[in-house]
Fold Kinesin-like protein.
Amino acid sequence: MEKICVAVRVRPPTPESSPENGSSLWKVEDNRISLYKSLDTPISTSSYAFDHVFDESSTNAEVYELLTKDIIHAAVEGFNGTAFAYGQTSSGKTFTMTGSETDPGIIRRSVRDVFEKIQMISDREFLIRVSYMEIYNEEINDLLAVENQRLQIHEHLERGVFVAGLKEEIVSDAEQILKLIDSGEGNRHFGETNMNVHSSRSHTIFRMVIESRGKENNSSDAIRVSVLNLVDLAGSERIAKTGAGGVRLTEGKYINKSLMILGNVINKLSESAKLRAHIPYRDSKLTRILQPALGGNAKTCIICTIAPEEYHIEESKGTLQFASRAKRITNCAQVNEILTDAALLKRQKLEIEELRMKLEGSHAEVLEQEILKLSNQMLKYELECERLKTQLEDERRKQKEQEQCIKEQQLKIDNLNNLVTNSDFKRNQSEDFISLRKNPNGLCNANESSDAPVTPCFKSASHSFVVARSNYALSDFSPMVDSLGDVADEDTWTKLNKGFVADLDKLQYTPAIKRQITPVAMPTMDCSRESYKEVEDLKSQIELLTNEKDSLQVKFNEQVDTNNKLMEEMSKLKQETLPMKEIPKRLSDSVANCKNVFSDVIVTMKSLMAGKDSPTATLLFGTTEITRSLLSTLETQFSMIMDGQEESDQWETLRVSLKNTATSLLSDAQARDEFHNSHNKGLETAVMEEKLKSELSTIKERYNELEKELCLAKASRESHERLEKEVELLKEERDSLDAEISKATRRLRATASEKENVLKDLNVEVKRRKEMEEEIKQISFAFASRQRSLVSFHNEIKSKMQKLTTQNPKSQ
Ligand SMILES: Nc1ncnc2c1ncn2[C@@H]1O[C@H](COP(=O)(O)OP(=O)(O)OP(=O)(O)O)[C@@H](O)[C@H]1O
């Protein structure tokens, strides 16, 4: 890395300068230039130091020696070199670069010096090509061939930036070049302005391409190719000062604009690498051509010229600031060696030799052979051109096929996306459906949306009934809600769809998936077909899953319907069983009544009884005890039933006990009949007995009623149990359905993620395609430039042949 070498040169005051404007306020001390006030006090802010500062008395020889010589010598050794003059109009740029008869400028001195240097290098042979161009009103013109106007800049992988169609003369000595320069100067645009009678209206670039190789003729020996640019810029100008109008004004605008862009490039380059963003080389032809010289592979020096007059003080300050910024630019120059194509130099050298020989002692036969040889060569080049054309066509065709393939894939993916979106819609429907069911109020919203799926309605079921069945809580009715919510996550789907459709490049790629780079198109197409097949498989899987999910959903809805019906039935049954719940209470009351009546009867009978130890009394007391205990048992049983502690076989026990009691009572009644028959009782006793009989028959009737009611209760209980079992079965079925649905949801989710991966792969594929397309473009570009160079070579050979033919009329 080395800094650009920057020097400042102060022109002597012109004879036209008025005494007040003519006195120089610039003082040069060594490599420093400062602006002084009239009383010899330097203005602190206007003092600048550079690599070299040349005062008014300096000569071009000095400038060349100190500033340019090293760069010229380095160019001979294989380094790119650039020297250019910058400054306001009439500040002495052309004087410095071109010079005068008595004091030649940098260009002439460089040309001579190059050949002197070459003479000193005995172990290498050199080939020098020169070109001379100008940039006039932002158009490139060839100064060595006036017909070459408005040339275009191109970029080549090997050649870098170059001007297509620019004439390059192979030269063998300095004088030949100087003659070419003189003829080029004649084609250059000059014009008269108020500031300069001979003002350069264009930027000129004199270019020498120096190729060299060792004389050992070793084909592996590297060829060194360096480019030396000697640039005379047009000067910046203030229209007010130059008084330019019309053509001059237009020229002035172009000049100022391109110099401003050069200033921008210098500004950017002078910033630290961190601050540097984009360097606007492409904004002007000048900066584009000088790109390698500015921050690239070249040794560069800039000579900034200033006019000493006070009248030009502001412009001079501007030039010095430009120079200060340029001083900060670093370049990285290196010897340009070409290890391949070693024959080029030799071939051209031989060609020159052969042509020279033919010129010296030419005869028709030799020329004919030469023409034949050149024709063969032309044919060869034409064939090469054809081959390249076909290759290019092939590449284009392949590219088209790939584009078609990508389009088809894109279409398939769009379809797939639609499919997934539909599936998503269905799932959202299910989600809505489930969220409705999850509503803690148990409200039925079926009427809110006409196209909503059938909603299970629990409104009809009694609240108490639902509460009592704790294992039938609505919240755990279906596990589908949460899991389905994950799958239908809107972001995921939006990303998935948008990511693919909207912008392929913004997608992130699956890091786990790595693919080998396939340089040719065919494997890529195979890969695409595989991806396509994969996508098709996935599509059919998704379809299957969607169908499966739909059928499960239908089943589920059916189950929900059945559930609802059962719930309704159960609710009805519950209503029906409500009066049955009253039975134990009524029975209990009846038993209590019976007990009271029985006690009254016993008390009455006791009072009527003559002897307490008589068999009748003993029987009566025994029966009384049995009946009391039976009635107490009945009371206990009924109160247990009322407290909800009944057991499945208690009804049966109760029924048997009642039956036994009734039998016992009946047998008591028979015994009393016998007693009545055997003992002639009194009238009062008979009345009492009648009363007792009627009481007993009432009890018997009551018992029969109770027995019937008990049977009914048992039957309804059985039906209730059966219904409960059915409900249990339904619940189990529903659970298995739920499990299946969640399984299907998981599978759907897995498929979706697989699809996402496939999409990512496809995007990687598309990106690779893009890169390949880019490569193909570059190849096309390379082919095109190769074709052009072949054409220019062809033209060159043709012109040589024409030259030969004209110089040797004998051959015609
Ligand atoms: N160092 C110098 N010694 C003697 N004369 C000079 C010197 N520098 C410039 N001049 C003279 O000053 C005049 C203007 O110089 P020149 O044409 O080189 O300026 P310029 O910067 O190239 O202007 P423009 O940008 O308009 O082409 C010319 O007559 C030239 O001979």
Observations:
- Residues 266 and 326 are 6 Å apart (CA to CA).
- The domain at 2-338 is CATH 3.40.850.10 (Kinesin).
